[in-house]
Amino acid sequence: MDSEDQSLDSTFGQQRVFNLDDPLVDPNVIAYLRGVRTQALRTSAISTHWRSALPRHSADLYDDETPSREIPGPLLAIEHGIPSWIEWFNETRDIILEEGKPSQEYDDRSLELVLHHLKDYLQEQKGLKGNSAHVLDLLQNLRPTSKDDGGEDVELEIDPEWAQSMLLKVKAQKVASLDDLKKCIKSENQTPPRGFKEWYNFLQSHEPEHSYFTGKIINGETVWTLLQYMSHDWIKDIHKQKRFPRARRFSTWLLYILFHLPTNVTAEYVSNLRELGKRCKKAILADARLAESKRPILLKDCQSSEMLELSTPSPPENLDVLNVTLVVIAVVYRQRDLTNWQDHGL
Description:
Elements: H1 27-42, H2 73-99, H3 108-124, H4 130-139, H5 160-172, H6 178-186, H7 195-205, H8 222-240, H9 244-259, H10 267-288, H11 305-309, H12 321-331
Pfam family, one: SIP1
InterPro entries: Brr1, Gemin2/Brr1
Protein name: Pre-mRNA-splicing factor BRR1
C-alpha cells in the first residue's frame, strides 16, 4: 500500500510508510518499529537539564574576539611616558654629541694637572701603603702649580675608580720614577681593551664620557661589541642590582652607548638592538608580575659628571635605564612591537 493512502499519525503528524496491519509485513519489522515509536514517545524533543550548568552570556557584536587581559599600571605608564622620554633622550643626546669634550692626548699642562689632582686624591686617603704610598712618594717631586699654569682656573675631579685603575696599571708596569708615571698615564686610552674581561674592567674603572667614543677606545665597531656584552651579560647586573655601584656604572654606560649609536642601521644591527630590547622587556615584565619589585636604578641617580657639567635636561621622574632603552629601540629604531604588552600571560 502506498504511503499516500495512509492517514496522518495523530502524534507525530506524519504518514506511515506502510500499513502495520498488513499480514505481508514481517513481524520482526513491526516489532522494531513499535519499539522505536515507544522510545520516541518517552523522549522529550527538548532537554533543559544542562542549561543551568553553563554560564549565562549576552550576545555581543565582538563575540568572535578574544577578551583582552588587563595590563598592569607600570606597563601602561611606559606607553604614556614614551613622548616625554624620547624628547628627553633626543635633547640629552644632542647636547652630549655637540658639546661633549672630544678625545685628546695629554699635553704637558693637562698632564701636570692630572698628576696634581692624583696627588691630592692620594693625600686624602688614610693609611696608604705599598704601591699607593710609592706613587705618592713619586708625586712629591712635582713642581708646584701657579696661576700661569692655569692650575687655579681649571677644575678637575679625579674619579676614584680611575685612580684605583691607574694605581693597578702603575703596579703592573713597575713604575720607578716620575717620568715613568707620566708615560704610564699618557699611554692610557691609546689602546682599546680586548675581550669581555678587559672591557668589563675598563667600564667599571672609567666613568663614561663622550671623549671615549671619539678617540681610539670606542669606535663604530666596538660600540656594537659593547651593546652585545650589555645584552648578554651586563643587563642582568643592572636588573638584579647585586652590587649597586657596579649596576649604576653599567647603567650610565648603557645610556652613553645609546647616545652614540647611529640612527640608521642595517638589518644585522637591528637584530642586535632587538635582542637587547627583548632582554629589557623580559626584566620589565618580571618586575610587573611581582607584588613588590626592587626599586630600579633611576636615571637621575646615574647621570655622568659630564652630563651634570653640561647641564643636560633632568631625566623624567621615575625613569630608569631599562625602560628608556626599550623605548628608544621601539621608537627610534622602529621596533614598536616590543612595547606591545598583550598576550604575555600577565
